[in-house]
Design goal:
single chain, about 210 residues, globular, two-stranded antiparallel sheet
Length: about 210
């Protein structure tokens, strides 16, 4: 099964992705993780990306698309995948379609997580993140020990992106660009809208039901 998660920052994509890949036995292909892996391994595209990031520049679509294409070609993605953080724009979605068509594959479902904007602001403004493993913690998913990551014991931090003014900017960027993907994939009949309010368990069950419907 080939899946995409869509939803604004704070919708719970990372939390639900980890649960779903365990349930389905498919890998989570996170753009950030893929990019860091390519840089760490020193691939040709990874070296190009590193040079740009070291210079404080954004990595352009051709390089991001190429790195995603390499991940899709890996054996671990042969039986399916969950894309998290890609595509972010309609041009990236078009590029993804071309990558999959070359392999005789397609996106089966796009899970769109729906959360009111006020709730997103509350979630993100109160979120802490592990600087080592990037695990986020918030009101609904607190760490066992306040301020400490459950996984590696690192002290949690509030990312600059989770400061209130930056949160508002991130949401505006999402509605302006990434939200257009909903229409793109609705035209293909693969969008499954899921209410992402409530407990983590409740949302997971709604996602599972949406995939079966």
């Amino acid at each position: 099964m080939n899946l995409i998660f869509l939803g604004p920052p704070g919708a719970g994509k990372g939390t639900q992705a980890k649960r779903l890949i365990t349930r389905l036995g498919i890998p989570q292909l996170s753009t950030g993780d893929i990019l860091r892996k390519a840089v760490a391994e020193g691939t040709a595209l990874g070296k190009q990306a590193k040079a740009l990031m070291d210079a404080g520049k954004l990595v352009p679509d051709p390089i991001v698309n190429g790195i995603v294409d390499e991940a899709l070609a890996s054996p671990m993605a042969a039986q399916g995948f969950l894309l998290d953080g890609f595509p972010r724009t309609v041009p990236q979605a078009t590029a993804l379609d071309e990558m999959l068509q070359r392999r005789g594959r397609k996106i089966d479902h796009v899970i769109e997580l729906l959360v009111p904007e006020k709730e997103l602001m509350n979630r993100l403004s109160g979120r802490e993140t592990c600087p080592t493993c990037q695990t986020p913690y918030g009101r609904d998913t607190p760490p066992r020990q306040p301020g400490i990551c459950d996984k590696d014991g690192a002290r949690l931090v509030v990312r600059p992106d989770d400061q209130p003014d930056r949160v508002q900017q991130r949401l505006q960027e999402y509605w302006a660009k990434t939200a257009l993907l909903t229409g793109y994939y609705k035209a293909r009949g693969v969008v499954r809208a899921v209410d992402a309010m409530g407990t983590v368990d409740d949302v997971e069950q709604r996602i599972v039901r949406a995939l079966k419907s």
